[in-house]
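re the bet — no i am not wrong, look at it urself. input seq straight from the record:
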Amino acid sequence: MKTTATLCTALIIAFSFQTSGAEAKKPNILWLIAENIGPDLGCYGYPSVVTPNLDRLARQGMRYELAFSAAPMCSPSRSAFMTGMYQTTIGAQNHRSHRHDHFHLPDGVQPVTQRLAGAGYYTANIRKLDGKQVGTAKTDLNFEVQGAVLNLRPNTKPRTDGGSGVNSKLQDYENEIRLFHTDNWSDLKPRQPFFAQVNLPTVERNVKGWIGSKAIPWNRQTHPETTDPAKMIVLPYYPDHEITRKDWAGYIDAVNAMDARAGALGIYDLGGSVWEWCEDFFNADKKDHVLRSASWGSSAPKPLLSSFRGNQPSTRRWRCDGFRCVLEGSP
């Protein structure tokens, strides 16, 4: 069975640092996940955006030009990259499905974080940094996770009254506590090696507009709205209309805010042993969410960046051919 490449790369990195004798030091893994964007970053040559933090990640590491999501919607895409399997292979292809039927993964298929936990990693789905909410801790999987509870200090369990929305929240809760040990950034330093994913709240929207804008604050947080709609480049298959330009300007503001949130995590400035041996990744769960874009196939490329900080063993090297990268050499 074929596998998707995204989080599987983290597994390759984690397990490749094990040796037959004394175990080599394993890198920490930080994974930043954005909502609903194409390769619309400065490092991909997209005009108008201001994304210095992710551009720096690209300069220091690798920028992938042929990265694609496995599905055009959140939940099947996340079901794919959290297992390394195509969503159609594991029966998770329908959006927000299996929320009430106790559907489980096929035998032999495990979520990536459970595999990492089995390899000695402390796993985190970050909500808070220094008391401030910085991530959504989104799971949104189309299956029920089996296995032991990892998080012994979970958030309040949502109540269920039989409604579809509440049951979906209940499944997200039950999945999260079996996939991750914590949701708090401060738990990471004393528990290495760790795998920490941060689901950034932007670029997301609802019928009222872009999440984090002045019209729709996220956890009482808003981002600047500085992009001039008149300067937007309207793609030829969109009507060149004030509504279109305003929507694209809101998208650019949201992308800029997403990059600022990545920078606010301090991933380049914390220093110390936590960050001197760390593999950083950034990807998006699906294509941009501007007007008709979301849900219309996954053929457009998505952003994928990676960077390694630390001293790799000198006998190892990356061999890359397009999107596929293999770590070669003996430990």
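see?? The first strand starts at residue 28 and ends at 34. told u. also The radius of gyration is 20 Å. so pay up
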